[in-house]
Specification:
By secondary structure, the protein is an alpha/beta fold. It folds into two domains: about 240 residues, Peroxisomal Thiolase, Chain A, domain 1, CATH 3.40.47; about 150 residues, Peroxisomal Thiolase, Chain A, domain 1 (3-Layer(aba) Sandwich), CATH 3.40.47. It is about 35% helix and about 20% strand. The chain is built from 13 helices and 14 strands. A ten-stranded mixed β-sheet has the order 5-4-6-7-1-8-14-13-9-10, with helices on both faces. Helix 11 links the parallel strand 9 and strand 10. The longest helix has 17 residues. The chain is globular, with a radius of gyration of 20 Å. About 60% of the residues are buried. One of its GO terms (cellular component) is cytosol. It is an enzyme of class 2 (transferase). Keywords: Acyltransferase, Fatty acid biosynthesis, Fatty acid metabolism, Lipid biosynthesis, Lipid metabolism, Transferase. This is 3-oxoacyl-[acyl-carrier-protein] synthase 2. InterPro entries: 3-oxoacyl-ACP_synth-2 (IPR017568), Beta-ketoacyl_synthase (IPR000794), Ketoacyl_synth_AS (IPR018201), Ketoacyl_synth_C (IPR014031), Ketoacyl_synth_N (IPR014030), PKS_Beta-ketoAc_synthase_dom (IPR020841), Thiolase-like (IPR016039).
Length: about 425
């Protein structure tokens, strides 16, 4: 028998709020966190806008010495993890430590550290490169340091599947609890890539919006006038817990995780197939795993990046999986407000989906002013909407053809 798995705590660092409540309130208000880049001088870049995390002070969550020895993505992960554990009211005592694991992914890892230390190497020579360079840069260090900080001695790993990372991390952590290898998992994604190299690389791909004069209108999933995605940064971390473990300690349950699916496009390094068949297989696998019919799904938090091919492919995939029911469910992209957090996006969007089920209100897709004729579903345009929804899906699809979906259900005792 598969064990039931529930969400008992959440933590968020995002362009629209540095805690879960502020994040959710901003989404429901349709507030955009996208603006001109302040992290560096982007005046020579075709894209000069991003969803930056604002007013983040890592020393509020970590020792000052550790702040100096960690990359920004790890600082985000540590902050979100601490908030998630506090929200779950869970203290990792020695008695349960071996049954608590960590599974936090990052698509790119310590890019800021890499840039800074490479400059040091070129300008000052190899002897001046920091001894902390490697542990600061490697992508698994978010999981590693969260494990060390909170004494979690159970299964600990990390996912690296580009933009599917956060969802793969949550799905894999879900499996570990289902199969009895852990009772609690701290899981999600963290990313901090609003840096010169990442921006230059994505600009060279012509993948990002150049709507620099209207930053808050630049991310416009499913809109006819979209011209690319907008990069964001942050972390979304959730506490997953085996149901009986949560009930025995009187935890407040936010939502239940009931299914997980993943697939490969086996098509192209950056582009999905136009018919979205890989994404369709992924969602179908998640529904089979959950043991539910497509008609039971009421909401999809879409990958919805605001790219021409991506939005169309996901729309076609939804139609393939849900048939006529595709026109009777709601789909929205919260990336219209947060931008695309790459490896962290699955974390914050799982939280948005869980909150939508808990509160029975759906976050909007803002900036949807002129719908693309090929994107003809209900994308909850521009304003949040009250709705009776029992089951939701969170989709994330990444470079390399990685697809991941999780199915969440409103918790019922």
């Amino acid at each position: 028998m598969k064990r039931r798995v529930v969400i008992t705590g959440v933590g968020v660092i995002s362009p629209v709020g540095n805690n879960a409540s502020a994040f959710w309130e901003s989404l429901l208000e349709g507030k955009s966190g996208i603006d001109k880049i302040t992290a560096f001088d982007a005046s020579e870049y075709p894209t000069q806008i991003a969803g930056e995390v604002k007013d983040f002070h890592p020393e509020e969550f970590m020792d000052k010495k550790e702040v100096r020895r960690t990359d920004r993505f790890v600082q985000f992960a540590m902050a979100a993890s601490k908030m998630a554990l506090e929200n779950a009211k869970l203290e990792i005592s020695p008695e349960i430590a071996e049954r608590v694991g960590v599974y936090i992914g990052s698509g790119i890892g310590g890019l800021a550290t890499w840039e800074e230390q490479h400059s040091t190497l070129v300008e000052k020579g190899p002897r001046r490169v920091s001894p902390f360079f490697i542990p600061m840069m490697i992508g698994n260090m978010a999981s590693g340091l969260v494990s060390i900080e909170f004494g979690a001695k159970g299964p600990t790993s990390s996912a690296i599947t580009a933009c599917a990372t956060g969802t793969n991390a949550i799905g894999d952590a879900f499996r570990l609890i289902q199969l009895g290898q852990a009772d609690v998992m701290i899981t999600g994604g963290a990313e901090a890539t609003i840096r010169p190299m990442a921006m230059a690389g994505f600009c060279s791909m012509k993948a990002m919006s150049t709507r620099n004069d209207e930053p808050q209108k630049a991310s416009r999933p499913f809109d006819r006038d979209r011209d690319g995605f907008v990069m964001g940064e942050g972390a979304g971390v959730i506490v997953l817990e085996e149901l009986e473990h949560a009930l025995q300690r009187g935890a407040t349950i936010i939502a239940e995780v009931i299914g997980y699916g993943m697939s490969a496009d086996a098509h192209h390094i950056t582009a999905p197939p136009e018919d979205g068949e890989g994404a369709a297989r992924c969602m179908s696998a998640a529904l089979r795993d959950a043991g539910i019919e497509p008609t039971e799904v009421g909401y999809i938090n879409a990958h919805g990046t605001s790219t021409d091919i991506g939005d169309k492919a996901e729309t076609r995939a939804i139609k393939t999986v849900f048939g006529e029911h595709a026109y009777h469910l709601a789909v929205s992209s919260t990336k219209s407000m947060t931008g695309h957090l790459l490896g962290a996006t699955g974390g914050i969007e799982a939280i948005a989906t869980a909150f939508a089920l808990r509160d029975q209100i759906l976050p909007p897709t803002i900036n949807l002013e002129n719908p693309d004729p090929d994107c003809d579903l209900d994308y909850v345009p521009n304003k949040a909407r009250k709705a009776e929804v029992n089951v939701g899906i969170s989709n994330t699809f990444g470079f390399g053809g990685h697809n991941a979906s999780i199915v969440l259900k409103r918790y019922e005792a």
